[in-house]
Design brief:
Largest sheet: none
Distance between the termini: 32 Å
Number of domains: 1
Order of helices and strands: HHHHHHHHH
Shape: elongated
Structural class: mainly alpha
Strand content: under 5%
Amino acid sequence: MIIRKFWEWYERNYEVNVGVAAGLFLLQIFHLVWLFAEVVWMKLSGTPLFSLHGMPKLIMVLVDYTEIPALISASLIYVNELRKSFSFKSLLFLIFLNSQWLHLFWITDEFVMAVFIQGTAIIMPVWLAWVAILIDYLEVPVIYDTVKKFIVSLRRKIR
């Protein structure tokens, strides 16, 4: 009963729900740009494209934490789609999204930076840092799809 009511509410407010998910995920682009420019580029070339310190670094950390509500809100989009009918794309995107939890709680950015920038692989090997980066970038197709869903939902509402 509660679950059915939740999904009814979710459907009635779909534009807002998908808009919140899209907005939160768009913030993640800043994190992905930083990850490439400072961490990955440093590993590949020896010099970062830029490096964040002080307040910009703190802002980046705060932006990174918006990933948690982004994952939850975007997961609801794909769970809702799967609830209505099976779609391989929805299932795949749900897997992409929820692999982020592994990255968030196990292979953190601090670990990746320690391995790549300081060169210290504490317990885990370097290849695991590359896996963590790949997991982070699995968000990109979901970000695109979520923004697209938001735009489509707005166009439907206007009609």
